[in-house]
Design goal:
By secondary structure, this protein is an all-alpha fold. The protein has helices at about 5-25, 30-55, 60-85, 90-115, 120-134. The longest helix is centred in the middle third of the chain and has 27 residues, at about 60-85.
């Protein structure tokens, strides 16, 4: 399976693109601060999910990259709170984005709690079983 098929990846990519579109409306003076930060952290969520999936043969690496993704997801929510407090997004936009952010966090935490459901460690397990048989 390709990492793009992971529901957590798909949802986080969608949210990053939605944030990108909304952040185009932020003031010019925020370009190198809030705009850059919220775009970077939101994009990092799906990038870390992709990296985690590619490292799934190593359970500790898989979980480590997913926790990085979860941290970036939390950071994204903080930047969205700043955007709301600064008046750059409406309560409605914030509520919608925040709800999606929470859903993504739950998906990531499910992956962390159930790494075997994502093929984590399977190559190592198969290699060990083959060595035992020989």
């Amino acid at each position: 399976m390709d990492f793009r098929n992971l529901y957590a990846y798909q949802k986080s990519f969608e949210l990053a693109m939605e944030i990108f579109e909304i952040s185009k409306m932020f003031p010019k003076e925020e370009q190198y601060s809030l705009t850059d930060q919220v775009r970077r952290s939101s994009r990092s969520v799906c990038a870390n999910i992709a990296e985690a999936y590619r490292k799934r043969i190593y359970p500790n690496h898989f979980i480590s990259k997913l926790t990085d993704s979860d941290a970036e997801n939390s950071e994204t929510n903080v930047w969205l709170e700043f955007a709301l407090s600064c008046g750059y997004i409406s309560e409605g936009s914030y509520g919608s984005l925040s709800q999606k952010n929470i859903e993504i966090g739950k998906l990531i935490n499910y992956m962390v709690s159930n790494p075997q459901k994502f093929g984590c460690g399977m190559v190592t397990k198969l290699k060990t079983e083959t060595e035992t048989e020989n």
